[in-house]
Each structure stands twice: as structure tokens, then as C-alpha cells.
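Discussion board: Methods & Data

I've been asked by a reviewer to show the raw model output for two of the constructs in my manuscript, not just the figures. I'm not sure how much to include, so I'm pasting the format here to get opinions. Each protein appears as its amino acid sequence followed by a line of C-alpha cells. Is this the kind of thing reviewers expect to see in a supplement, or should I convert it first? Here is construct A:
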Amino acid sequence: MKYLLFLPLVVALAVGQNLLTNGDFEQEITVGWTYSDSGVGTHQADRQVGYHPDPDYEAMTYQYDNPGWTRLAQRVDVPGTQLTLSFWASFEETGGTSSCWPAACFAVCYYNAANTLLGETRYYYSTYANWTPTSTFSLKRVTNPAWTQYSLNIMDELTQNLPGINPPDVARLEVALYAYTYSG
């Protein structure tokens, strides 16, 4: 089983100020981004031109075999929750069963000033994933794996889908490209 996620992204204020370092992946992914992985199998994060039909760079995470994950993430201080996150993404999965499934994800994690995780919004593409939303875990199932532009109003997400998070407590956001394989 494998899964891939490709995207350029922007976390922006309403006026369009980019808060990410190297959010367009035009520099090496070591600039502004943190790579981590877990489990067995093949793990990879990469940036290339050619993932998307435009001439710019996009990043990708890949994890093959199970169980495990590959993650490329960046955490930034935010000046409040009146923010809009926008990104283009293409999702891919191969293989899987109800007891051993891959998922391609884009995660937005919400942290307080002490770096305590308050909750998460997860866009995901998976045939078999069985995650369940909670008051601090919002799921957005992606049904079209083709290149699509997404937009997330952070304040609306917190008030409408994450009632377990107090918006004034959010001091940092983390965005992550996340390739995941579950084995039950």
C-alpha cells in the first residue's frame, strides 16, 4: 500500500500575507519544513516540478508498507484565528483493506502558546480509513483525488466543527503533508 500527497500551500491573513516559510516549496524542503516518519516500510518526502502541470515546485510525502507514516510539517505562530488557509492538493492511494489501509492526508493542527495540541482538522483521501470526528478532531473526506484548490477559514472551522477548542487559545498552527498506513 502506498499513498502520496502533493501540494503548494499558503496560510494567509485575510489580506494575503503568507505566514509560512517556503510555503511554495521553491526552496529545498529542509527550509522551513520538518520531516519525520514512523514504522516500517519506505518513507519519503520530496519536492519536484512536474507533480502539477504548472512550472512551479510542489512537495510530496510517500509511505509504502505498513504500519507507519511519513510527515512533512511546519508550525507557525499566528496573530489570531481570523485566517484563511488555501492550498492545492492531489491525493493518491494504492491498495488496502478494511484492516490494513493507506490514507493521504493534509492536516491542520491547532496549538496553544505552550505548544499543547488542542485539536486537528484533517483532509484525507482513503477508501478504508475509519477515523471518527470528535469535538477536537474534524474530518474532511476528499473524494476527488485530482488537483483541487482547497480553502479553510480557520475561525469558521473552529466555531462550526471544533467546539472543543476555544479560538482565543490558538497561538500556533501546524500544517502537515501526511502519508499514513494503518494495520489493525
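Construct B, same format:
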Amino acid sequence: MAEEQRGKEEQGNFTDSLRDIQGEYIMLTELYEKEKSYGQRLTDMMKTLQDEVDSTISIRPDAIGAQCREAYLVSEAVVVLVDSSGNRISRPLYRLPAATIVSVIEECTPELRRLLFEKRKSESNKVRSLERVLKELKKAQATFKQSRRDEVEEQDEPKDEMKDRIEAKPVQKEQTQVAPRPSREGFAFKGSFGEKREVPGISP
């Protein structure tokens, strides 16, 4: 009876152990997936930053944890190792162990920061230069427009003066001058048309 009880306990412990192992394996698999995902995301970030500065970054061999003479992080976030014989080995950063990925990123961060600062400073100077030129061009454009406006006003001014003069001058109506009619008392015809004489007027 005791042996049977002991067998059941051992079977139960075995089942519990299998269940625990299965649970640990599931959690370990999830951790592997997260490690791979995080490593890929960190690599993509480094790739973006390095593409921006477009520069190769030197890495201390100790940060790699491998026997090499030189190490570099080049474009596309690829780690290049140079051994003592001068042979080169390249591997994508995301394929390295998680500890190595973190070490490489910590090693490259100060240099990336410096390169990004220098590039931002250079771009800032370019933008200020463009702004200065743009302001000068705006001033020149405004001056040109004002000059053209003044020229148009000067050309229109004589026409306006002439119009004002015409409107200000009164219109004089032509008066027909009628010759005064001679008085009947002044003279009278006597005799033929070829002979005209002044004679005293004939009183009625």
C-alpha cells in the first residue's frame, strides 16, 4: 500500500515537472523572440542614424568580445572585424549576441552623437544663409515693384493734368455778331442804285 502511494506521488511529481518544463520552455521561447525583435529594432535605429551621418565608426575590439585587431561599424549597420592577419569578417549587427549588440551600441553612441551635432550645425548654417539671401531678394523685389509703380504714376500724371485743365476751362459759346441796322434817319436812297447819297432823313 505504501509502495502504491509512493508510486502515485512519484508519478504526480513527474507530471508536475513536465508541466513546469513545458511552461519554462514556452517562456524561454517568448524571451528568445523578444530578444531577436529588440535586437532587430536596435539595429534598425543604428542603421538610420548611421545613414544620416554617412560615416564609419571605429569600435574597440574589447567591446566586441572577440579576438580581432580592429573593428568597425559600417553602413547598413554591419560590423566588420579585422584579425591579426588582416582578414576581414563582416556580420550584420542584429545577428550578433544580444550582449554584443548592446556593447556595440554603447560604444558607438558618443561618436554618433558628435557626428549628428556637427551635421545639424552645418545644416543650420546653410539654412541661415538661405534665409539671409531670401530676405535680401524680398527687399530687392519690393524696391523693384515700387520703382515700377512710380514710373507708371509719372507716365499717367500729364494725362491727368491735361484732363483737369480741360475740365477747368469754361466753354465759351460763339456769339454771332450782327451788324447794326442803319437808322432810317441816317440816310435814304435817292435816284438809281449806282448812286448813293446821304440826305436828311425823311420825317414820317
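Answer (T.O., handling editor elsewhere):
This is acceptable in a supplement if you add a one-line summary per construct. For B, something like: Residues 8-115 form one domain.
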